[in-house]
């Protein structure tokens, strides 16, 4: 973990970023994808939502602080998906008595469903960059008409091989331009302090 609070250099290039990889990261405590709390920019966005019944998906959910915050704020239709069996088992135990969250063990790229909002928080940076075009194509398939992709993308490069994998605003805008209108696509002003000046906040509307 570097001094920006980010994991770097932990991926062996010959090791696939599959369920076993991520289960090992969570099982051994060597994954720091979540901040231990809801990301401030997403908290601010969630606080502005008035319809507590919208269908929300969080892909690559990790320890899912965002989902926890949504549930505490009274949202009733939250779905999280992750590829790591160890993590999903833990989450299913944590939320076993809560009917407002659905926890799925699976591959995001094979997931089917319709959502009004997808929240992006450190999933995009965790997948191999070769899959980013697939990500940009999959998102509109999962979003209902008028649906939104909202969240954070790293606006920086990393010296060591990821995950996380970085990038820049021009690269991302070219990636999403065909399928989305950009309501917001700009440097984040209220990032978690250790990620200050390294994030973009996006609010993308399905075309």
Characterise this structure.
Helices cover 26% and strands 24% of the residues. The protein is an alpha/beta fold and 207 residues long. It has one domain (19-206): Rossmann fold. Strands 3-2-1-4-5-7-6 form a seven-stranded mixed beta sheet, sandwiched between helices. Mean pLDDT is 85; it is low at 1-15.
Structural class: alpha/beta
CATH topology: Rossmann fold
Beta-strand residue fraction: 15-25%
The geometry reads as: globular
Number of discrete helical segments: 6
What is the H/E string? HHEHEHEEHEHEE
Can you say what the CATH homologous superfamily is? Vaccinia Virus protein VP39
Question: What order do the strands of the largest sheet run in, or round the barrel if closed?
Answer: 3-2-1-4-5-7-6
Number of domains: 1
Write down the overall mean pLDDT.
85
Instruction: Please report the total strand number as a whole number.
Output: 7
Report Rg: 16 Å
CATH architecture: 3-Layer(aba) Sandwich
Can you give the helix content as a percent range?
25-40%
Instruction: Give the class-level CATH name.
Output: Alpha Beta
User: How would you sum up the major sheet?
Assistant: 7 strands, mixed
Poorly predicted regions are 1-15
Distance between the termini: 38 Å
The oligomeric state is: single chain
Tag the structure with descriptive keywords.
207 residues, 6 helices, Rossmann fold, alpha/beta, 7 strands, disordered N terminus, seven-stranded mixed beta sheet, globular
List the helices and strands and how they pair.
Blueprint: H1 19-27, H2 40-46, E1 56-59, H3 65-72, E2 78-82, H4 85-94, E3 101-105, E4 115-121, H5 132-142, E5 143-154, H6 169-176, E6 180-187, E7 199-206
Parallel strand pairs: 1-2, 1-4, 2-3, 4-5
Antiparallel strand pairs: 5-7, 6-7
